[in-house]
Structures are given as C-alpha cells and as structure tokens.
Design a protein that fits this description.
The chain has a six-stranded parallel sheet. The chain is 34% helix and 17% strand. The chain is α/β, with parallel strands linked by helices. The relative contact order is 0.21. It has a single domain, classed as HUPs (Rossmann fold, 3-Layer(aba) Sandwich).
C-alpha cells in the first residue's frame, strides 16, 4: 500500500512553511509522497481574489521542483463550488483503492474539526495529521496524529502584504516562486 500525505490549501503563494510541513510529515511518518492539493473554493474561508489559478499552479510547480516525492493533485480545481474534504477524499479513495491517505492540517484546522462537513465519515477515509501553528491549540477529541515540527511563522497572507507594501519576501518562499511573482507583477509587485 502506498502511503500518501495530502496537504491542501490555496497556495496563494506557496511558501517555505508549506514545504517544511510536507517534508517533516513525510519523514516522520515515512510516507511515499506528499500531494499538494490547491483548492478552488475553501468552505471555511473566502479565498482572496489575488491571482488566477494558472498562476497559483505555476508557482506551486516552481516551489516543488527538485523533489520527486512532492506531487500536485488538482482534483479540487476540476469541481465547481465549495471544496469539501469528504467529497474529495471519497473520489480519491475510489480512484486509488490501494493508497492510504494522511490528511495534513495545521492547529488552526484541528480546532475547526468539529465543524468539518461529514467529519465522522471522513475519518473512515483518512488519518488526520496535525502540525503546530502559532497561537492555536492542537488539542482535540478527534484522532489526530500530532507531528512536532520546527515552526516558522509565515503565511501566504503575510507574504502578500509584504509584497504589496514593497517589503522583502526573500527566504519566506522559494527563489523561483519569488522571481515568478516579480516577473508577472503579482501581489502588487
């Protein structure tokens, strides 16, 4: 059985925090691959209207280059409407019946688990893996494998704000992604 970690998000833009989480979880759980899954319309928050999906996909490709165990899964872009994890994982489980899925979430989402769509059914399809996010608790009544990883307090919204105000985002995201952002005048650059 192939063991697959799933890391979902807007990746607007993808940054070094995403890569650190993926690498640490893959190593700690000895996973075969991490699938980065950009979402179309997250049900728990409004996706900022900042860049086109094509730009997000290209930045994600650039961020993942050089690591053959990091893949991109675009299933959520192929559907309209809110991207409920239960629906996505049901489709992936049917498509890949010999894979075991580990769904990676930050502590902010661990706190939100009781509100997830069809959470009890979802627990039959995936094992949740939790990682720290500053200012959030990872305590929950749900079965979550907690992985203690080094944390860097970086977010896509922080990077967008820094770029818009002309501040440096160097070392917060991979250099190829930063070059792409500047070349394409994204986020007010």
């Amino acid at each position: 059985m192939k063991r697959i970690g799933i890391l979902g998000g807007t990746f607007d833009p993808p940054h070094n925090g995403h890569l650190l989480i993926a690498n640490e979880v893959m190593s700690a759980l000895q996973l075969d691959e991490i699938w980065f899954m950009p979402n179309q319309e997250p049900p728990h928050k409004k996706k900022p209207d900042t860049v086109k999906n094509e730009n997000r996909l290209q930045m994600l490709k650039l961020a993942l280059q050089g690591n053959e165990q990091f893949k991109i899964e675009t299933i959520e872009w192929e559907r309209k409407g809110p991207s409920f994890t239960f629906d996505t994982m049901k489709i992936l489980s049917l498509k890949y019946p010999k894979h075991g899925f580990y769904f990676i979430i930050g502590a902010d989402m661990i706190e939100y688990l009781p509100k997830w769509h069809k959470i009890d059914e979802l627990l039959e399809l995936v094992k949740f893996v939790g990682v720290d996010r500053p200012s959030y608790s990872h305590e929950t009544g749900y079965p979550v494998l907690y992985i203690d990883i080094p944390t860097i307090d970086v977010s896509s919204s922080l990077i967008r704000e820094r770029l818009k105000s002309g501040k440096s985002a160097r070392y917060l995201l991979p250099e190829p992604v930063l070059h792409y952002i500047k070349e394409n005048h994204l986020y007010g650059t």
